[in-house]
Design goal:
Blueprint (H helix, E strand, L loop, with lengths): L15 H4 L6 E4 L7 H17 L4 E4 L12 E6 L20 E5 L3 E6 L2 H16 L6 E5 L5 E8 L21 E2 L2 E2 L4 H12 L4 E5 L10 H14 L5 E6 L3 H4 L11 H17 L5 E4 L16 H12 L5 E5 L21 H6 L10 E6 L23 E6 L15 H9 L11 H5 L10 E5 L15 H12 L5 H12 L4 H21 L38 E2 L17 H8 L9 H4 L2 E2 L10 H24 L7 H33 L41
Parallel strand pairs: 1-2, 1-3, 3-5, 7-10, 7-16, 10-11, 11-12, 12-13, 13-14, 14-15, 15-16
Antiparallel strand pairs: 4-5, 4-6, 8-9, 17-18
The protein binds beta-D-glucopyranuronic acid (BDP).
Length: about 725
């Protein structure tokens, strides 16, 4: 198996024979339009029944149910408007947009969506149960926690190029674009739509946030229509990232000032052209005035001026704008000159005073932490500053700083920590999940975005195990109360096998993976300690200081960490609501795992665990990499229980991860040993007598190479 069907492979269920009596033989899908989600649901249900239970159900597509009493065991899938519940004596619980009612009895299955999309979600939920061998009666309504459940692709246009790259994509080239144009063959888009819809995703931004305006040429606009047509039967609407300076760089105007009439008109014209082709276009995503990207600040306009410019163009069509809070000015960050400079402060500072200024169809999209997708960050303080403006959390399925799919890192536990975190705004319960779903302020509703960056690789993301993150993302956006373990177990059964040993093994590896990665990469909130200058991949703690991105550790010979207190540091702790601020202001009350995020402390500082900072570094790195070694053995234990192709491909990655975790361990421990001069109490650091040095080997076809950073090789070569 290649992995291409992800968790929708509908593998034959081992106990199929005994279950058949409970399954429908006829499916009534209440929409005859082949491009409707309800029609899709009918086809998908038939496929699942055939594939999982070898049951050839017939599908009857009708616009309204022709029968008062349906014959035989049957399934009805429709919407509140196509299915006359009252006439059939059915009481449907309250449904909100995209929600569904699933009623399974031994005689019939009823799937009623609040809308077409909801019906499709109900169908996928039913199939999810069937795939796990669950045919038991059930009756419940399920409503999404938030209306925005989007994925962001960072696919490049590669205009004038010869390929279709994806920024921070580790699963192959773009399925949408190739050398500046929309691909002719969009087969994979169809498969991707199916996977996304099955976990409740309802929107997708197709192109890189570092956007390119060539999407707007007539040919590409027609291409967008083709893409939207593929997503529509799956209830997914497309959106686009915008390059703020397009009116000038692409449109030939002399300005891109968001308040200039010509600029406004230009964006209206473009938007009209898009909607003429894609009437259900979801809206725009904007990265502006960030990391060298043009934006409203170029003209001394506010971020709200920028967001509202786009918001007004899509408003008549019901579109929205996701305006990213990832705004900081890398040029002004200069750590050597200004001890108080702090990129973590930027978002709150830039959005200061703007809460009342945004148009009502603007949602601010905020990365989970104040810096950038690190292995451990506190929740972004901006979540507590927007009371009138809806917000969405931005997560990253693409493991940019987290091993880039070469390392297994199951992210649901990390995301849940973010979503559950209580900001205590005004001293009242204010969990992030209840801020983004609109409950906390009772204003607009925001939601969820995740950078996914799936590509043409048959594994979609680059490795088989990383797909659990996409599954869990969709499910958590639907219901943030879901348990990380339960999601994982369901995913494993659907993806690999029902065998309990497989389920247990994948669980053991996955649940240990984020803590292990944190242990062997960056501890105590010091950030991931990857190479900052280039790929964000392997260890390079030296690159964490003296870079223009403000990802600093401020490590010297005696101490380490960013002082973000109000008292002595950058004041970042004070950007949080009072109770949280007080916790972070004092090292005694700051949780150990964020200690160096908020405080600059001697290597000899004692943690709550009793260990010193430096000894914790050493211990954690040895512990984490030791855990990574167990992944290989665990995986080998299920060799005969899953298909050979996926077994071998994943094994290859786990062996690699085990090795790379040692590179991580030795690099980081060596680096801080060299810096601090404090030896490891257990005498491990710097002691590499077991190693075979490449430079001692007889090399044929290899050249000697001085490794940078030097500490990544035991003797530098
Ligand atoms: C950083 C990525 C960069 C993105 C940027 C963003 O390294 O490729 O453009 O975030 O989110 O993490 O805009």
């Amino acid at each position: 198996e290649t992995g291409i069907d992800a968790w929708l492979r509908y593998a034959p269920y081992p106990g199929a024979a005994g279950h058949k009596a409970f399954l429908p033989q006829t499916i009534f899908a209440l929409n005859t339009t082949t491009t409707s989600p309800v029609y899709t649901a009918g086809t998908e249900l038939a496929l699942g029944l055939k594939s999982i239970y070898d049951l050839q159900a017939s599908v009857e597509y009708q616009d309204a149910l022709h029968y008062t009493t349906c014959p035989g065991k049957h399934l009805i899938v429709g919407t509140l408007s196509s299915y006359d519940a009252k006439a059939h004596g059915v009481r449907v619980p309250e449904l909100i947009e995209d929600g569904y009612f699933l009623d399974i009895t031994p005689r019939r299955v009823l799937i009623i969506g609040q809308n077409e999309r909801g019906a499709l979600y109900g169908a996928f939920e039913y199939l999810n149960r069937l795939g796990q061998g669950n045919v038991a009666p059930a009756s419940f309504a399920s409503n999404p926690d938030a209306p925005i459940r989007w994925v962001n692709q960072w696919d490049n246009m590669n205009e004038g190029g010869t390929h279709g790259s994806i920024e921070r994509g580790y699963g192959g080239v773009s399925m949408f674009f190739w050398a500046g144009v929309v691909r002719e063959d969009l087969t994979r888009v169809h498969q991707y739509a199916r996977i996304l819809a099955s976990v409740g995703i309802n929107g997708i931004v197709l192109n890189n946030v570092n956007a390119n305006a060539s999407l707007f040429n007539e040919n590409n606009l027609d291409g967008l229509k083709r893409i939207a047509d593929i997503f529509r039967p799956y209830g997914i609407r497309i959106g686009l990232s915008l390059l703020f300076s397009s009116p000038q760089s692409y449109g030939g105007l002399s300005t891109f000032d968001p308040l200039d009439e010509r600029v406004i008109q230009w964006w209206h014209d473009i938007t009209d052209k898009i909607y003429a082709r894609v009437p259900d276009f979801a809206g725009y995503l904007s990265k502006a005035s960030s990391e060298g990207q043009p934006g409203p600040l170029t003209y001394n306009r506010t971020l709200a001026d920028g967001a509202n410019l786009f918001a007004r163009t899509v408003k008549p069509y019901g579109g929205i704008v996701l305006f990213r809070a990832f705004v900081y000015d890398s040029k002004t960050l200069n750590q050597t000159l200004d001890w108080k400079a702090d990129r973590a402060n930027a978002a709150v500072e830039f959005f200061e005073g703007l809460d009342t200024e945004f148009a009502d169809n603007v949602v601010v999209q905020i990365k989970y932490g104040p810096i950038d997708f690190q292995v451990r960050e506190p929740v972004s303080p901006l979540f507590s500053h927007l009371r009138q403006t809806p917000s969405a959390v931005e997560l990253q399925v693409s493991q940019e700083y987290l091993g880039q799919q070469a390392h297994v890192v199951y992210l649901a536990p990390m995301w849940k920590e973010t979503l559950d975190f209580d900001m205590r705004i005004d001293g009242k319960p204010s969990a992030v999940k209840n801020i983004i779903n609109g409950q906390r302020w009772n204003t607009g509703r925001g939601g969820y975005a995740a950078v996914v960056n799936a590509g043409l690789n048959s594994t979609w993301l680059g490795s088989h195990l990383s797909l659990s993150n996409l599954y869990a993302y969709g499910k958590l956006a639907w219901d943030p109360e879901s348990s990380a373990e339960e999601l994982l177990d369901a995913w494993t059964r659907l993806t690999f096998s029902h065998d309990q040993a497989v389920v247990d093994t994948v669980r053991e590896i996955s649940m240990a993976s984020w803590p292990a990665y944190e242990d062997y990469s960056g501890n105590l909130g010091v950030q991931t300690l990857t190479d900052i200058l280039n790929g964000h991949y392997g260890p390079n703690p030296a690159s964490q200081d003296g870079n223009p991105w403000g990802q600093w550790t401020r490590a010297d010979g005696f101490s380490i960490g960013m002082d973000r207190t109000l008292k002595n540091g950058t004041g970042n702790a004070a950007q949080y609501p009072a109770e949280v601020a007080a916790t972070y202001e004092d090292p005694e009350t700051t949780p150990d795992n964020l200690l160096l995020w908020f405080h600059h402390l001697p290597y000899t500082y004692r943690l709550k665990s009793g260990s010193t900072v430096i000894q914790h570094f050493y211990d954690a790195h040895y512990r984490g990499s030791a855990v990574a070694q167990t992944f290989v053995t665990l995986w080998e234990g299920i060799k005969d229980k899953i298909d050979a192709q996926r077994y071998e491909e994943q094994l290859f990655r786990l062996v690699y991860q085990a090795g790379h975790s040692l590179v991580w361990r030795d690099s980081i421990t060596n680096f801080y040993y060299n810096k601090s001069g404090i030896p490891d109490e257990l005498g491990r650091v710097g002691n590499y007598k077991y190693r075979v040095e490449a430079e001692d080997m007889q090399l044929d076809g290899y050249v000697k190479y001085q490794v940078k950073p030097f500490e990544s090789a035991s003797r530098g070569w």
